[in-house]
Write a structure and sequence with these properties.
homotetramer, alpha+beta, 3 helices
């Protein structure tokens, strides 16, 4: 089952500067081979359900190994059976609508 | 890796009455053997990472089979390495704090 | 506009024990007069849009005053115009479905 | 209080094509004068707490007026008192970290 996911990892107990942890998670995604893109408040990823959630699990493990004792992550997951849709398609659909008016 | 998860499944394209779908997802969780509890805006689940996310995947599959062409789910995931904590422990910690003042 | 909200406040930069902060947020909700109920992974609240979001803003302010330099909160918001629905109604709808099979 | 918000609006009961609704919400944001940017799975917005949540409320109202009987929205909110940070700053912090290794 294909999924489009958007997630935000918040390490807890490591102070206020979270960017080293967010960067480490980007490296985990890089190694996963999945298609992903960062935005200011999270990261979008697409792929097979099991692979995507294994990659997010690997982020948690990598961040615990870096010293984060606690992690709170928010994930949005979309699946659809009516048609295939990529992250690019989603943006294009909205842009097409915006041009209508 | 143990996780505490809270998730909300929103089937799209099946009208406004979502309770038959939420109920089906409860049945999937029942069969998973995981510890879970429903609240008005979602369901809390605890267990091993892979088992919990397999159960949520099975909810998506069951809801697609019921006829939902599209599903949007929001998931909060917590992991910690400093100590074990159950959903009950979380509630008890806050209640202890509330009694202090 | 009536809303049903579910939210989870994560103070960042205050160590791993978050329960004193979660408890303070419960006190803010108590003072707001809104109908709310805590569960292991967040708190459900219902009321008018502006009052509910003012209460969550007041939680942020109270937690910053307690010393949290950074806060990350996740909020789910539901509104509907087809009929009135309370948090209790949502639970009852699902329970009714669960009894069917 | 300044906030950085990321939100995803899911209209329910209007079929599977949500892009006309997402586009309408972009128009509401445009009129709000707030700084915002869309990504494949949501929209980031920054500004004062009350203005940002009024804009999201206006999205809900606009979508109900378009015919959506029910809307489910997920919002991530960040506030911090230690320093000012924009959405651009967040991306730059992570990119700086990624260059380190």
């Amino acid at each position: 089952m294909k999924v489009i996911v958007d997630f935000t990892v918040v390490p807890i107990g490591v102070g206020v500067s979270l960017s080293p942890y967010v960067a480490e998670c980007q490296r985990v995604l890089e190694r996963s081979g999945l298609d992903f893109r960062m935005h200011p408040n999270g990261t979008g990823v697409e792929g097979e359900w099991d692979q995507v959630f294994a990659a997010i699990r690997d982020c948690h493990q990598a961040l615990h190994e870096m010293g984060a004792p606690r992690i709170s992550t928010t994930i949005k997951v979309g699946t659809r059976t009516d048609r295939q849709q990529s992250m690019n398609d989603k943006i294009l659909s909205v842009e097409k609508q915006l041009k209508k008016k």
